[in-house]
Write a structure and sequence with these properties.
Layout: E1 2-6, H1 12-29, E2 36-40, E3 43-47, E4 59-64, H2 72-88, E5 96-102, E6 114-121, H3 127-136, E7 150-154, E8 157-162
Antiparallel strand pairs: 1-3, 2-3, 4-7, 5-6, 6-8, 7-8
Keywords: Antibiotic, Antimicrobial, Disulfide bond, Fungicide, Lectin, Mannose-binding, Plant defense
InterPro entries: Cell2Cell_Antifungal, GNK2, GNK2_sf
Organism: Ceratopteris richardii
């Protein structure tokens, strides 16, 4: 079984380019493997020698930005935007949503002014399965110890937040 999915904000052209890049990664890195998963910035490609169209909430990757912000207001803003995308993605087209939110004021002139976040589930999940998957990891960003950005990828869903724009819509 094989499948791919692009992030909900990608055009069909960017999606095709991403999937082609993921395919080349598989061919060069795992030419004889009976299964592989590749997560690119914009798409996910997977193939296995078994059926995998069932929800799987196992975390496969937690990526944390090395920059930190210990301001409690910033952390509250992160919690709010993550909760927002986690709750909205299961209701959205392609089980996807993105959001921006102003950051609470800080005394530092170098503090970020906007948070950017998105969440998406794989398209074979039902809305309730998507909600369960994202909810299972909705606080995993806290493992990143005050990072200003984080990506949490499970087998069936993921979310990301950053202090810079990284999506198209």
């Amino acid at each position: 079984m094989a499948g791919f999915q692009c992030r909900g904000d990608l055009s069909s052209e960017l999606c095709s380019q991403c999937v082609e890049s993921a395919s080349q990664t598989v061919l060069s890195s795992c030419p004889y493997a009976i299964g592989s998963r590749v997560q690119k910035d914009g798409c996910f490609l997977r193939y296995e020698n078994y059926t995998f169209a069932v929800p799987d909430t196992s975390i496969i990757t937690e990526l944390c930005n090395v920059d930190k912000n210990n301001d409690s207001r910033f952390q509250a803003d992160v919690a709010q935007i993550v909760a927002r995308v986690v709750s909205e993605a299961p209701k959205g087209h392609l089980l996807y949503t993105s959001a921006t939110s102003p950051v609470s004021s800080s005394n530092s002139s170098s503090a970020p002014s906007t948070l950017y976040a998105l969440a998406q589930c794989l398209n074979y999940l039902s809305r309730s399965e998507c909600s369960e998957c994202l909810s299972a990891h909705s606080s995993s960003w806290q493992d990143c110890d005050n990072a200003v950005g984080s990506q949490i990828h499970s087998v069936s869903c993921y979310y990301r937040f950053e202090i810079y724009p990284f999506f198209y819509k």
